[in-house]
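A quick word before the example. In earlier lectures we treated sequence and structure as two separate objects. From today on, think of them as two lines of the same record. Here is Class I SAM-dependent methyltransferase written that way.
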Amino acid sequence: MFRLKHRLLVATKSFWETLLQWESAMAATWASRAHRRLMNLQWRVAPQPEHFDHHLDLHYQWLATRSSFWVERGVFGGLALRGGDVLELACGDGFNARNFYSLRSRRVIACDFDPAAIATARRKNHAPNVEFRLADIRDSMPDGTFDNIVWDAAIEHFTPAETAAILRNIKARLTEGGVLSGYTIVERADGEKSLSHHEYEFRDKTDLLEFLTPHFLHVRVFETKFPERHNLYFWASDHTIPFDPDWSAAISVTNTVAT
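And the structure line, produced from the sequence above:
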């Protein structure tokens, strides 16, 4: 019976593939339009939410705009992972905790002060080794020690004084060799805030570097530029950070060619 079914499937493969391609296209179109409507409601009708649901990127914005900066954040943060315990601060919808950190780490604790963000995270981005907690990192940052701490798309939501205090608490929670990684944006040329929730937007790479260097021996800040956004990424540690000469994930050699 199995062989008969297999022969029938082989004989009719072209028909079924055409049908499934049509079904997939219809499903993708429906999903894209549904997420576009959801984004318009959330972001064009006041009040704006404190967090962004990255399923809007996954199902709508990425294909519509071809802009990949939302994926950079998880990728660059993932370069610093050490395989142990991760603390994500101001995790928002939890997309990166689930899809970039959890499979390469023993455990992820992801926290946010916004109950709506935690509700979205638990509903859409749960995973067996990810725990979402409601916590304001200014006064109730989760205790413990962590091999990685991620502060992604959130440092701009705090005043300079709050940022300095949070960095001290981060430093106290990193294990030996632990790495802080994160992302933020450069302020707009017209001086207007990119989002009303932002407290301090950085002028450039040097401005961000000056916030981090009082707390860590090794800091790397780099940028990417898109038409709609100027991004800053950072790694900080008292030990090795990605792309240091002794970074265990890489090997390099400089060849000298005689002329």
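Notice the following. The CA atoms of residues 35 and 56 lie 5 Å apart. We will return to this example when we discuss secondary structure assignment.
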